[in-house]
Amino acid sequence: xxxxxxxxxxxxxxxxxxxxxxxxxxxxxxxxxxxxxxxxxxxxxxxxxxxxxxxxxxxxxxxxxxxxxxxxxxxxxxxxxxxxxxxxxxxxxxxxxxxxxxxxxxxxxxxxxxxxxxxxxxxxxxxxxxxxxxxxxxxxxxxxxxxxxxxxxxxxxxxxxxxxxxxxxxxxxxxxxxxxxxxxxxxxxxxxxxxxxxxxxxxxxxxxxxxxxxxxxxxxxxxxxxxxxxxxxxxxxxxxxxxxxxxxxxxxxxxxxxxxxxxxxxxxxxxxxxxxxxxxxxxxxxxxxxxxxxxxxxxxxxxxxxxxxxxxxx
Length: 314
Hints:
The chain is of the alpha/beta class. 18% of the residues lie in helices and 33% in strands. The chain has helices spanning 14-24, 29-48, 53-77, and strands at 85-88, 104-106, 110-112, 122-125, 133-136, 139-147, 155-160, 164-173, 179-182, 185-187, 191-196, 201-203, 207-208, 213-217, 222-224, 228-229, 235-238, 243-246, 256-259, 263-266, 280-286, 290-293, 303-307, 312-313. It has a 15-stranded mixed β-sheet that branches. It has a 9-stranded parallel β-sheet with strand order 5-7-9-12-15-18-20-22-24, with no helix packed on it. Strand 2 and strand 3 (110-112) form a beta hairpin.
């Protein structure tokens, strides 16, 4: 007499979980496809259930629940950056950063309407079309922004409709052109680098330093005329042989300066940040570069300056 084993069922099927996750957002499509592919894995186990039906069924049910809980934890913990490479399209016909003409090409997805649809990615320009840019409608979340050598004509980025650029790693000018950012910049990584490697960089609106570190580097010049803000510490470091000019006398940050190389050029004490209420040790440390004053003024009485072995102060 043969015994027919009855297959136990569970409501947490791999294909269903996969479809839900795929629909959740573009970021989870790959995870969704992974769950859908496990349908064939379940079939392999089904063919073996006649040998150990209860154990196989319990194993599959436990696996489904465990994988679902892992994915729910990932969603609750926040977005995971795929760090795609994203190019601004030279043939989009629009200068808008957010536009239905899909001005962005993603390495994994193709054309998209904005540069941060997959979280923070690496955004690059390799052309001179569609200038000036309109950074419109959002504070875009980027990992890096790089101007490649082919973007060799001056470009201006203008803010529109509360637009801005948030960076978690850095902004790099590999071209010979001067690129001007008339748009707010958010420093949203523990250390963000601004690198004028081959061409100048100009920042005309506020740089939100928060409590993070900023490094200005490169062999050519960087000019910051917008307000630099930020509370609760952090360091602004000058490296590279170029000149960093800070000209705004309304800066509100409380960061320290370290000049390792090149020139930090200022024309007023307030270029260095908000006046402290008491002694501020090591406000400026020179370890190999130059602090240059382009006007006559006195440093705030509470600032302390540390001179290294190879520095100059003019």
